[in-house]
Amino acid sequence: MSAIDTIELLARSEHRVRILDLLCENGTLEKHVLGDRIDASRTTIGRNLDALEEQGWISRTNGTCTITRQGKLVAEAFADLVSEVELTDKLRSFMRWVPDDTLDLDLSLLAESKITLAQPGDPYAMINKQVQLIKETEWYRVVLPFTGLHATEAANEQIVGNGAEGELVVEPDIADLYCSAQEYAELLREMVATERLELFAYDGTLPYSLGVFDDTVQIVVAEDDEPRALLETTNETVREWALERYRSYKRHADGFSVS
User: Fold this and answer.
1) Of 6, 39, 136, 142, which has the most beta carbons under 10 Å away?
2) 64 near 29, Cβ under 8 Å?
């Protein structure tokens, strides 16, 4: 049997997958116990046990079913495949906006992440989520290819009013905006005056917004500066990766002030 045939044999029957999973967990079970745990008729269970035994994935003796070494390998490999497909489905709405080859990260680390998208009834869902996190953060490091006044106001509240500390690495046009637009310049001058905010202009293009807010990492992807998806995770390995990416951008950036 080819690998594709093996996948098809399991994928066509949730009952076969369930039987293998139960036997992986327990090693050996009596047939009537499998019947109690699987929502199917005795005939259906028997037919699927026959198929699994024919492949050499289980053995049956005196009413008991035991998973074989081959069956355990097949069950574990199939479970891994299902997990990979589920992760791919989960990340699809986020990854479609990530520029090619710019997310050098093991995507399996994002399995527990949360993704927020703009919705017809809630077009500001991503902005509101980011602003709320800023309001709860005492320390952050962020790279920004785009910006927003609402988030800047929240950062001002935290740094000026609540003693938070942060660093921003932005693209040159964002640095120009911060210096030329009065509504931004006033907020940033107040933050810089506390000596708890440092600003850096990156000599290049940033592929997405990447921020470490205390223990949380946020990545915001956009199209033509229009945010499309926000991913959030507290995975420690992702946090270490994000900080290293931040430091690499900062090494190629120059500090600037807002006059």
Assistant:
1) 142
2) yes
The rounded distance, in Å, linking the Cα atoms of 197 and 44 is 66
Q: Is 40 exposed, middle or buried (0-12, 13-18, 19+ CB in 10 A)?
A: middle
> At 198, is the secondary structure helix, strand, or coil?
strand
Residue at token pair 């520029």? 99
Please, which residues bridge with residue 200 across strands?
A: 169, 255
The pLDDT value given to residue 63: 87
Q: Could you tell me whether strands 58-61 and 64-67 are parallel, antiparallel, or unpaired per DSSP bridges?
A: antiparallel
Distance CA 186, CA 121 (A): 33
Read off the tokens for 151: 């988030």
Has residue 3 got a pLDDT over 90? no
Which amino acid belongs to residue 71? G
The set of residues, in sequence order, having a beta carbon less than 8 Å from that of 210 and lying 6+ positions away, is 142, 143, 217, 218, 219, 242, 245, 246
Residues 113-124: pLDDT tens digits?
999 998 787 778
C-alpha 194/C-alpha 199 separation (Å) is 13
- What confidence category does residue 227 fall into, taking pLDDT thresholds of 50, 70 and 90? confident
pTM of the model: 0.81
Distance CA 213, CA 234 (A): 10
User: CB neighbours of 80 closer than 8 A, spacing ≥ 6?
Assistant: none
Q: Contact at 8 Å (CB) between 23 and 58?
A: yes
Does residue 26 register a pLDDT over 90?
yes
CB neighbours of residue 213 within 10 Å: 21
Mean pLDDT of the chain: 93
Angle at 229 between CA 201 and CA 178, to 5 degrees: 25
Residue 220, H or E segment: strand 216-223
AA identity, residue 170:
V
